[in-house]
Design a protein that fits this description.
Radius of gyration: 18 Å
Helix content: over 70%
Strand content: under 5%
Structural class: mainly alpha
Number of domains: 1
Number of helices: 2
Number of strands: 0
Largest sheet: none
């Protein structure tokens, strides 16, 4: 992504940023789904 930015390849930079955003959302969803499994011991759950 850094090399594409230096070479003024805006389409490649935009695609990389879009992929990173999608990965961040998917990772957040995965953590939200896994959290109850790891916090069964908590009295608030």
């Amino acid at each position: 992504m850094v090399q594409a930015n230096a070479r003024m390849q805006a389409d490649t930079v935009f695609a990389a940023m879009f992929i990173l955003a999608v990965e961040a959302v998917l990772f957040r969803k995965a953590v939200d789904l896994a959290a109850p499994f790891f916090t069964r011991w908590s009295p608030n759950h």
